[in-house]
Design a protein that fits this description.
The chain is α/β, with parallel strands linked by helices and 275 residues long. 35% of the residues lie in helices and 13% in strands.
């Protein structure tokens, strides 16, 4: 029986140590690399506001003549206003009341044939909108009018003109939910005042008009001086160097804010009259 010599033992230990050094642990699978993602955009500020437009750019010599067709007990129509606009080649924005449209279907269908006319929404029954406290009723006033105008003309109004020029932030917000921009004015012509003669009406509008201005007139009452004054209003504004355009053209280069937080008190904006 052979005996292990010290040299033998030493060589055996060296061999074992050497073979042990040759072993390496199996590689662990690499952890998946996390893809770098762009930071999430900030959440929109929560607010219930929407623009209430009264004018266009003050840097361009443009004025928009707008005509309300109010829903009233008689739903009248002054064709002389439209005839003047057509004869003078004057574009205009016509704010149609839903009740007026249903009472004058042939009239509005005829107006839709002229590309120079743009249609807006003037509510269905012409209420004082800030006094309508039921939000659903506010929306119904707007949506019924949208439907009436679309059914008769194939056009969908983009702008809402509040009756009497009365609007607050709640009404403007609700209008935005109906895809409408609230469009007021910066120059009330004063034509519903039947005591104002045509010349005074003309002088007032021509003198007070400013670049980007929106003038409100009416096309639904023959007792108003509108039709008599309109030819001289158009002539006077053009003589001052104004281009007469629709509201859509007046505002074509304007970007609407999605949210306008404001600390201003909640007060209705009411149309003025000729002093």
């Amino acid at each position: 029986m052979s005996r292990w010599s010290p040299v033998h033992s030493l060589l055996t230990l060296v061999a074992l140590a050497t073979s042990a050094c040759l072993w390496t642990p199996p590689e662990e699978p690499e952890a998946p690399r996390e893809e770098k993602k762009a930071p999430a955009p900030p959440e929109p500020t929560a607010c219930m506001t929407a623009p209430i437009v009264t004018n266009g750019s003050r840097n361009r010599m443009r004025v928009a003549l707008t005509f309300d067709a109010c829903s009233t007990r008689h739903n009248e129509y002054d064709e002389r206003v439209i005839r003047t606009l057509l004869e003078t080649g004057t574009p205009a924005t016509l704010f149609i009341g839903g009740g007026w449209a249903l009472a004058n279907p042939g009239r509005i269908e005829e107006l839709a044939q002229y590309p120079g006319f743009e249609f807006g929404n003037h509510t269905f029954s012409h209420p004082h909108m800030p006094q309508v406290k039921d939000d659903q009723k506010v929306l119904e006033e707007l949506q019924l009018t949208q439907r009436a105008v679309y059914d008769l003309t194939g056009r969908i109004p983009k702008y809402f003109r509040p009756p009497f020029g009365e609007v607050d932030r709640r009404v403007a917000w609700l209008a935005s939910q109906a895809s409408l921009v609230t469009l007021n004015f910066d120059l009330p012509s004063g034509d519903p005042d039947t005591t104002i003669p045509a010349k005074r009406l003309t002088d007032w509008v021509v003198r007070k008009a400013s670049p980007g201005g929106i003038v409100v007139l009416h096309m639904n009452h023959k007792r108003f001086a509108t039709a008599t004054a309109l030819p001289d209003i158009i002539k006077g504004l053009r003589k001052r160097g104004f281009e007469l355009v629709t509201v859509g053209t007046l505002l074509e280069d304007h970007t609407w804010p999605t949210c306008q937080p404001s600390e201003e008190p909640e007060l209705p904006a009411v149309a003025g009259v000729i002093p």
